[in-house]
Amino acid sequence: MDFIVTLVNGLSLGGIYAMIALGYTMVYGIAKMLNFAHGDVIMVGGYTVLVFLAVNPVLAIVMSVIFCLLLGIVIEKVAYKPLRGASPLAVLITAIGVSYLLQSLALIIFGAAPEFVIIANLGTLDLGPISIKYSTIITLVATVIVMTVLSLFVKYSKIGRAMVAVSEDRDAARLMGININMIITITFAIGSALAALAGVCSLLNVPTITPTYGAMPGIKAFTAAVIGGIGSIPGAMVGGILLGIVECLCKAVPEIAPYTIAIEFAILIVILLVKPTGILGKKRREKV
Asked: Among the residues of 79-133, which ranges form H helices?
């Protein structure tokens, strides 16, 4: 019975990682850049919930998503758009700078002390000997809905098909009249909104936030994106779920619990040695 609870918790945690990883993988697949400030958008969303929580919990969640969506657009326009033709190293350094900027602003505004963000006291669902938190169930349901909506959006909407076209061949997409800059901005906006939702789900399970709140989830979500195949939306989902299950299974065994993070990154190394493109990643021919 404990294994079932651990597995459910792993799926829930994996869903959070998958939502964050989608931001990484969409931006990389379309803009060909790694936005290492993405994890800090989660932190910004968490503090937005904290600010509006006294008014109304639902309003706090909505405002968190909206604010992070707008923040993603601003970051793309101010920090990344001017570097569109720059070297990957310049973009990477800029992303790290944006990450530290967001952390520093949060430190100045809210201080270093942890803040408790209790969105709701949901309790647990008792199914005989099995007891599962409602927050875990909500996270699972939210993950399934988000993944389904995003997959349908990319597959059937005009903007989604434009994203796929830009990801496959940016020059050909431009010749077909697709506004590349607009598509990249929309991608940042969607990724940031997903980060906010992931932050809300995370706060439902662990209601504490600090200025570095999004750092480790961001790194783990990036790991999940690479494991699944960065640039692949299904890959981000698979990588996130796999990493979440592995983490919860490791923490459930006292003897290996202290080595959980090491095991997660060891899995990343092994998978990349066996399949360098990730589980669902595909090799791409680079134009020269």
From this structure: 88-110
CA–CA–CA angle 93, 96, 99 (5° rounding): 150
Cβ-contact 139, 205 below 8 angstroms: yes
Q: Tens-digit pLDDT profile for the chain (288 aa)?
A: 577 888 888 888 888 898 888 888 888 888 778 888 888 999 999 999 999 998 889 999 999 999 999 999 999 999 888 888 788 888 889 999 999 999 999 999 999 899 988 887 777 877 777 778 888 888 888 888 888 888 888 888 999 899 888 888 888 888 888 898 899 999 999 989 999 998 898 888 888 999 999 888 888 988 898 898 887 888 888 899 999 999 999 998 888 989 999 999 999 899 888 888 888 877 665 554
> d(Cα 247, Cα 259) in Å, to the nearest integer?
10
Q: How many angstroms separate the CA atoms of 92 and 103, rounded?
A: 17
The structure's pTM equals 0.88
Of 113, 67, 50, 82, residue with least CA distance to 181: 82
